[in-house]
Design brief:
The complex is a heterodimer. Chain A has 2 domains: about 120 residues, no CATH class; about 290 residues, TIM Barrel (Alpha-Beta Barrel). In chain A, helix 6 links the parallel strand 10 and strand 11. The radius of gyration of chain A is 20 Å and the shape is globular. In chain A, the strands form 4 sheets. Chain A has a 5-stranded mixed sheet. Chain A is α/β, with parallel strands linked by helices. Chain A has 12 helices and 14 strands. Chain A is about 30% helix and about 15% strand. By secondary structure, chain B is α+β, with helices and mostly antiparallel strands. In chain B, about 30% of the residues lie in helices and about 30% in strands. Chain B is built from 5 helices and 7 strands; from the N terminus they run H-E-E-E-E-H-E-E-H-E-H-H. The termini of chain B are far apart. In chain B, about 25% of the residues are buried. Classes of the chains: A alpha/beta, B alpha+beta. The structure holds iron/sulfur cluster. Iron/sulfur cluster binds next to loops of chain A. The site of iron/sulfur cluster has 10 residues of chain A, from loops.
Chain lengths: ~425, ~160
């Protein structure tokens, strides 16, 4: 989509939205807008990178992006939270991105030359990124990192893409995998173990381990092979800890009761996140057709609630791609309509103590919906504000999937004052 | 910006000094808590928050988000007291510097002690409020403030 040069005149500006929602932090609304519009770096901002200290996109690949540029993976906010920016932004997105620049030796966020905030700096590289596995490969190939989280991407390919039309339409994982020419869906577990052992040596760095990956539909029962992969790795990780459970999260397909019980009983996993993605049965069926066809929207929700029974209230969250419900041609046609439909649905889910880890939809390059235009900033902020009201009421554990453990879905940053 | 002078920095470093922070919560209710690790670095007050679920941490997050103020009081062993108004300007929750403080905290308080955040507070106002100091100040500035019997000539006063 060619950028509409008049786009600023057609929607509320950052300042308008900040002035409208005075009960939400201005710096947080800015963060939402950066995730929506994207960002670029001036040469001065790139020169602030110290390759011995900071982590850049070229240090470690990610299944969700192709970008291996020498730019920071993320920014550190003054309130101690992070801006996750290590994904592919659409260079021709519908709106101009923010520009990270340096003024008076400070790293600042600018738009049309105006400074909107200062950031404390760039994410730092974990020590294990400088080490290699016994096969000579960098350990960062097997485990990646956010400021306080270790990420293990178990299956690089999602088998919903085996059948045309079944892959989630916003998702770049499998197209990115295919483009990279990779053929190895999973890495040998011994190298994951080596990376994990090395990562744990860094005191005070990590508070959480997250496992995720593409869905695997095969097995005796649907998803059994996916379950086996996660159990195998979680068992390896569990050996490192003295406690019954360790701070960990599995973002995976929605397992049935039997599979959930196995996950709980055979591993030391602490929290589970089966992502519902879209809060409406009809839009879910269009956007996540494979999930809808194989499991179904109502069944997906039922499995989330079963997971709460198994893992305990506060230990289950669900991710969503906020804004994709407005995609064309089959999405909602107005933001008001979308808001009115998804909020009651959100209340039903959140009332089970399940926080919604809602990521801002950026039409990702290589995804089926690439090149589309995401919603207005007002829409994202209005929805997040409502989710926050509901989460304050129903969610007993504001630390599951919070700013410290993830940081991508910024709605849950607001849990910091619960 | 007001300056944290060397005398106050020294008082802050003395083990018997009491240091207390008052920070409002979201609803505007003040929460007051003693913070032994409060000290000065350059011209900022710094303290280590050890528990992410602490009331003060939540309140400080709210304070930095909405650019509000907090208060600190410092009471020395010899009962000199200082009232400080400031704003939280940053919270460090990760990185090499954080890790060095984390290790230091563990050495001081034991291996099972965690570190949530290093908070930095910029002072806007520092005022000595020790009783003797304030009493003399009030007498000087507002001589109208006194019960008359305090200034009534007494029989045993020197002629
Ligand atoms: S299930 Fe959907 S969101 Fe998850 S990896 Fe597959 S296509 Fe992507």
């Amino acid at each position: 989509m060619a950028r509409d040069k008049e786009w600023r005149k057609k929607e509320p500006s950052l300042k308008d939205v900040q002035a409208k929602y005075t009960d939400l932090p201005k710096s947080w609304i800015l963060k939402a807008d950066i995730q929506r519009r994207g960002l670029t770096y001036t040469k001065a901002a790139v020169d602030k990178i110290d390759p011995n200290i900071h982590v850049v996109n070229s240090d470690a690949g990610s299944g969700f992006r192709n970008n291996l540029d020498y730019v920071p993976e993320g920014l550190i906010w003054k309130d101690g939270s992070y801006l996750v920016a290590n994904f592919d932004f659409d260079e021709n997105s519908a709106r101009d991105p923010y520009v990270i620049d340096v003024v008076d030796d400070k790293i600042v966020i600018t738009d049309e030359g105006e400074i909107f905030d200062e950031v404390l700096g760039y994410w730092e590289k974990p020590d294990f990124y400088n080490k290699r596995a016994s096969n000579g490969e960098p350990l960062s190939k097997y485990i990646t990192s956010r400021p306080q989280r270790l990420d293990i991407s178990v299956n690089k390919y999602c088998h919903f893409w085996d059948k045309p039309g079944d892959g989630c339409k916003y998702c770049p994982l499998t197209p990115t995998y295919k483009c990279s020419g990779a053929t190895e869906e999973q890495y040998e577990h011994k190298y994951i173990r080596e990376a994990f052992a090395e990562a744990l040596k860094q005191k005070g760095r990590f508070t959480h381990v997250m496992l995720t990956g593409g869905s695997i539909l095969s097995g005796k029962e649907l998803l059994d092979d996916e379950l086996e992969s996660y159990i195998a790795i979680l068992k390896i990780l569990g050996e490192f800890f003295t406690t019954d459970r360790f701070p960990s999260q599995l973002i995976a397909t929605a397992f049935n009761e039997r599979q959930l019980e196995r996950l709980k009983n055979e591993t030391k996993l602490m929290t589970y996140t089966p992502d519902i993605e879209v809060l409406n049965s009809e839009k879910f069926d269009w956007i996540c057709h494979g999930k809808s066809r194989e499991i179904g929207y109502e069944e997906w929700k039922r499995r989330i609630y079963k997971a709460v029974d198994v893992f305990g209230k506060g230990n289950v969250s669900s991710g969503m791609v906020l804004g994709v419900e407005l995609a064309t041609p089959n999405g909602f046609t107005s933001e008001d309509e979308a808001f009115n439909v998804i909020i009651p649905e959100a209340e039903e889910i959140i009332s089970h103590g399940v926080a919604l880890a809602a990521n801002i939809w950026r039409p990702a390059p290589k995804s089926i919906l690439q090149g589309q235009k995401s919603a207005s900033l007002d829409y994202f902020v209005r929805v997040y504000r409502e989710f926050d009201r509901l989460q304050r009421k129903y969610c007993p554990n504001p630390y599951t999937d919070d700013f410290r453990r993830c940081g991508a879905h910024i709605g849950l940053d607001l849990m910091r004052t619960y | 910006m007001v300056k944290i002078n060397d005398e106050l920095k020294q008082i802050l470093d003395e083990p018997d000094t009491l240091k207390v922070l008052a920070v409002n919560n979201r609803e505007g209710v003040p929460h007051v808590v003693f913070k032994g690790t409060l000290h000065a670095e350059d011209n900022q007050f710094v303290f280590y928050d050890l528990l992410q679920s602490s009331e003060i941490n939540k309140n400080l997050v709210n304070t930095i988000w909405f650019e509000k103020k907090l208060a600190i009081n410092i009471l020395s062993k010899d009962r000199r007291s200082f009232h400080i108004v400031g704003t939280p300007v940053k919270s460090v929750t990760a990185g090499k510097y954080f890790e060095s403080v984390y290790e230091n905290i563990q050495e001081r308080f034991g291996r099972d002690t965690d570190l949530n955040a290093i908070w930095y507070i910029e002072p806007e106002q520092i005022q000595e409020v020790s009783f003797a100091y304030r009493q003399a100040e009030q007498r000087e500035k507002f001589p109208i403030l006194a019960h008359l019997d305090q200034i009534t000539r007494r029989d045993d006063d020197d002629e």
